[in-house]
Amino acid sequence: MTEVYALKLSEIEEETYEKLLLLVDRQKQDKVKKFYRREDSLRTLLADLLVRNLVIEKTNLRNEEISFSYNEYGKPTLNDVENFHFNVSHSGEWIVCAVDSEPVGVDVEEIAPVDLDISRNYFSPDEHSDLLSQEDRIAYFFTLWTLKESYIKIVGKGLSLPLNSFSIRFSDEEIGIAASGRKLDDTFFTQYDIDDKYKMAVCAQDKEFPSYVTHKSVDELVHTFVESGGYLYN
Asked: Which of 35, 78, 121, 171 is the most exposed place for a label (fewest CB within 10 A)?
């Protein structure tokens, strides 16, 4: 069954930040350092550490043994461990991660003002029509966006799969997906309310989802990786 985790961003001391930075691989360190804004660096670093924390909890790997490969579209895969799939997303104050034995996708987005006319380009005609009929169009825009992104991410082909090439459809019993008039099988969706200012969606190949999100904290990560002595990356 899919497991879903969330971490709320909080500031950390510079000394702790520098120690945490040493726990990720060189490629990720370079990426973190390139961000101009501190919060962007911190989100990216903590997202990687959240994944590493979950890998350590669920496998026999030590942090220095963890390595990732990336497909041509940038989707990461954990090396040398079978039946361990993950996906991560972050926006604003939240970092989320989904873990499963099969491919999985997750997306979180902060609800913010947006030009709804872009839905003509990124949503299918049916979705655009549904959007216009909503009382709270901004919230519904991000409902659709996170569901569509979660599907894009489970497929793992990035935006080479256009967002307007398929439709999210709602029924009384489930959230479904259709393309060119036909229903796509073997993908299931759910949504979680982690914050009333955010939308979050998960897409998996198993319809059994947890009823709640497991919350982690920055303090917990700091304790796991620093105060406990570590898993330092060499």
From this structure: 171
Tell me the C-alpha distance between 165 and 178, whole Å.
Answer: 9
Distance CA 30, CA 26 (A): 6
Q: What share of the chain is helix, strand, coil (3-state, %, to 5)?
A: 40, 25, 35
CA 171 to each of CA 86, 168, 174, 175, 176: distance values in angstroms, whole numbers, following the listed order: 28, 10, 5, 6, 8
Q: Please return the burial class of 34, using the count of CB atoms within 10 Å of its CB with bins 0-12, 13-18 and 19+.
A: exposed
Q: Please, what sign has the CA dihedral across residues 161, 77, 90, 100?
A: positive
The span from the CA of 45 to the CA of 16, in Å, is: 12
Q: 10 Å Cβ neighbour count for 137?
A: 13
Reported as a single tens digit per residue, the pLDDT across 137-170 is 999 999 999 999 999 999 888 777 888 899 999 9
Residue 34 has, within 13 A of its CA and on its CB side, a CA count of 7
Give Cβ neighbours of residue 30 (< 8 Å, ≥ 6 apart): none
Q: What is the pTM of this model?
A: 0.93
Burial of 25 (0-12, 13-18, 19+ CB in 10 A): middle
Q: Which two tokens stand for residue 95?
A: 């970092």
- How many other C-beta atoms are found inside a 10 Å radius of the C-beta of residue 148? 27
Please, which pLDDT band fits residue 184 given cuts at 50, 70 and 90? Answer: low
- The CA distance from 149 to 155, in Å, is 10
